[in-house]
């Protein structure tokens, strides 16, 4: 597979298969205190740590790095599945073309708008569009562009979606340029596995059979001027340590060639999927403890990158993971096209992509974040203020983005509390706002109070 030197990764994993000394561990963790990016070798060493005490040190460092860069905010988003018509056959996926039991749905633009309005009504402001891959590239592109426009056109009591990210099939540069004009934020695509033999074994039909085509998608997006990209492995398909080190290699390649790495990293774990025996018994299923270590090590290895955890994970584990460096989480997700409308006919068992474990409502998730002292954020200011790509990285790397995140997150939280929260969440939220104010300097407080007054006066969507 392009950019991935399997031989180097394997020899690293073999030669490093010894205990990491305390001196080595402390040297690496000291480096992370300065928010410095780790090398592939250093990442491998952290992955090999097993002792409870040393794992606790890694967790504490990950939490420190996350809070130093982004502050206490956790960005909230919701996926919107628009179509499960697929021309690929991936052995782990409920949408696989060879899964003849799946009922296929491709939402109309009007239905996409209706789904969006349901989400707006709950308080969502950031959407991740997800679609399976149809055969015709032109049909894919026209559909994605129309879908993004429909989402932005949706309106509930003056509330609109602020940012649409998209997780869809690879495209050529010209198509990405057209997609960019529809106003997308991040283009996200998961490599699934960076291990070539495994990749070819699991992707048996359709355009997705070519692993390099998938890697090229990220290059094409950058070349088309989309500078926020999201990547990730689907954990469970191959040795997780191999996947993380290979992804680090991919990141090094991107940094070398485009000056920046990914805006976000996702760490989806494989879940049971309708019609897939493989998904119920993945070859490399990883435990929650291993998973926590992987998330924390990623936070330390690429400190400036957003880390996303989806509702594939249980509520309890997600509550723990936000302390280990996660910066974005989804809420109230459905992975069935049309799934947000209880009146929209669907059979979840036959139409969903995979199973989900965190079934809490947005309000319940927000309550739990607030209880842990985190500020749920619906902010999209960076993207609207052109703080994307290199501009974003230049602020994130020295930990300066936090100054804006602190204010914007509190403003979006107050808007949520006023417009959507249950009375209980409203009370907890205002208590946290009061506590959070104490952390701000006078200049920030002045801006915050101006924006808070806007909200009291009925004005929404102020940001810096
Ligand atoms: N067509 C797009 C593409 O090829 O990238 C979208 C893919 S799919 C709708 C989104 C992601 O779901 C996949 O990239 C994969 O990582 C993940 N996924 C698929 N099956 C899964 C399963 N059984 N459990 C968890 N995640 C799964």
List keywords for this structure.
20 helices, 10% strand, 464 residues, alpha/beta, binds S-adenosylmethionine, 11 strands
Rg computed from alpha carbons, rounded to a whole number of angstroms: 21 Å
Strand order of the biggest β-sheet: 1-3-4-5-7-8-9-10
Mean pLDDT: 95
Gap between N and C termini: 42 Å
Dominant shape: globular
Low-pLDDT stretches are none
List the ligand species: S-adenosylmethionine
Number of helices: 20
Task: Describe the main β-sheet briefly.
Answer: 8 strands, parallel, barrel
Percent of sequence in beta strands? 5-15%
Helix content: 40-55%
Protein structure class: alpha/beta
Number of strands: 11
What is shown here, in short?
This protein is of the alpha/beta class.
Q: What's the SSE blueprint?
A:
Elements: H1 6-15, H2 22-33, H3 40-47, H4 52-70, E1 73-83, E2 89-90, H5 109-122, E3 126-131, H6 137-153, E4 163-167, H7 173-181, E5 184-188, H8 196-202, E6 203-205, H9 211-223, E7 229-231, H10 240-258, E8 264-266, H11 277-280, H12 288-301, E9 306-309, H13 315-321, E10 328-330, H14 348-351, H15 362-371, E11 375-377, H16 381-384, H17 389-396, H18 401-419, H19 423-437, H20 442-456
Parallel strand pairs: 1-3, 1-10, 1-11, 3-4, 4-5, 5-7, 7-8, 8-9, 9-10
Antiparallel strand pairs: 2-6
The protein binds S-adenosylmethionine (SAM).
């Amino acid at each position: 597979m392009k950019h991935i030197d399997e031989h180097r990764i394997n020899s690293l994993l073999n030669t490093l298969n010894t205990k990491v000394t305390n001196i080595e561990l402390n040297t690496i963790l000291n480096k992370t205190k300065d928010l410095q990016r780790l090398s592939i070798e250093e990442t491998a060493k952290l992955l090999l740590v097993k002792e409870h005490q040393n794992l606790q040190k890694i967790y504490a460092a990950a939490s420190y790095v996350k809070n130093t860069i982004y502050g206490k905010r956790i960005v909230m988003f919701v996926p919107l599945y628009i179509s499960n018509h697929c021309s690929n056959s991936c052995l782990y996926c409920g949408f696989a073309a060879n899964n003849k039991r799946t009922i296929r749905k491709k939402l109309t633009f009007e239905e996409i708008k209706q789904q969006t309005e349901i989400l707006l009504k709950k308080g969502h402001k950031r959407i991740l569009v997800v679609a399976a891959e149809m055969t015709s590239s032109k049909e894919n592109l026209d559909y994605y562009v129309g879908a993004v426009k429909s989402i932005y056109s949706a309106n509930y009591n003056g509330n609109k979606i602020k940012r649409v990210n998209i997780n869809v099939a690879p495209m050529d540069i010209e198509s990405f340029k057209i997609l960019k004009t529809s106003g997308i934020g991040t283009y996200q695509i998961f490599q699934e596995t960076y291990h070539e033999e495994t990749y070819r074994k699991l992707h048996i039909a359709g355009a997705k059979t070519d692993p390099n085509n998938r890697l090229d998608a990220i290059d094409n997006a950058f070349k088309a001027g989309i500078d926020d990209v999201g990547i990730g492995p689907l954990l469970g398909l191959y040795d997780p340590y191999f996947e993380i080190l290979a992804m680090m290699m991919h990141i090094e390649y991107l940094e070398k060639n485009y000056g920046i790495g990914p805006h976000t990293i996702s760490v989806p774990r494989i879940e049971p999927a309708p019609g897939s025996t493989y998904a119920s018994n993945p070859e490399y299923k990883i435990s929650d403890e291993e998973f926590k270590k992987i998330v924390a090590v990623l936070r330390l290895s690429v400190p400036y990158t957003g880390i996303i955890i989806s509702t594939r994970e249980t509520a309890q584990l997600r509550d723990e993971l936000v302390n280990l460096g996660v910066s974005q989480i989804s809420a109230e997700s459905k992975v069935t096209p049309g799934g947000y409308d209880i009146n929209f006919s669907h059979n979840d068992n036959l139409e969903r992509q995979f199973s989900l474990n965190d079934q809490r409502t947005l309000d319940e998730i927000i309550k739990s974040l607030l209880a842990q002292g985190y500020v749920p954020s619906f902010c999209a200011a960076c993207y609207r203020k052109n703080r994307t790509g290199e501009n974003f990285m230049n602020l994130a790397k020295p930990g300066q983005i936090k100054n804006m995140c602190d204010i914007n997150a509190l403003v979006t939280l107050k808007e949520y509390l006023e417009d959507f929260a249950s009375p209980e969440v409203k009370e907890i939220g205002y208590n946290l706002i009061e506590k959070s104010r104490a952390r701000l300097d006078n200049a920030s407080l002045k801006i915050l109070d101006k924006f808070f007054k806007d909200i009291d006066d009925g004005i929404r969507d102020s940001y810096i």
